[in-house]
Amino acid sequence: MTSTEEFDYEQLCPGIRNAVRWFHAWEWETSDSGDGSRFKAGSFMCALEVPMVVVPIKECHFMCHDANALSQELAREMSPRDFDKVDIQAMYNPKDGVAFILVTGDGLLKLKG
Which of the four, 5, 17, 27, 102, has the lowest number of CB atoms within 10 Å? Predict the structure, then answer.
């Protein structure tokens, strides 16, 4: 994981900063994030028009375990209503061996620092 002392949270979209801080506090590395505010169709400013955090998975055979663990951590820190507004997807591409967890939804904006 990237050391939080080295990580510049100011480079992130303001709405997703607290969520990324939580992911780092839980010792999850993040590779991409956004709050959806910078989305512009046909642009690479923000990939999605919804709040999102991407967690790369180094050991793909642990992908389901990691997705469940991340889901449990989110459920502990969020109200049931906010947790219902989060979608967690684990993805793997066997062509290149890349695996990641994509967490999306407005519930991410409710995580407070």
Answer: 5
pTM, rounded to two decimals: 0.86
* Cα distance between residue 113 and residue 105, in whole Å: 18
Count of the separate structural domains present in the chain: 1
Range of the domain at 38: 9-110
Decide: 35 and 15 in contact? Cβ < 8 Å.
yes
The contacts of residue 89 (CB under 8 Å, 6+ apart) are: 67, 101, 102, 103, 104
pLDDT tens-digit series, residues 65-97: 999 999 999 999 999 999 999 999 999 999 999
Average pLDDT over residues 95-105: 95
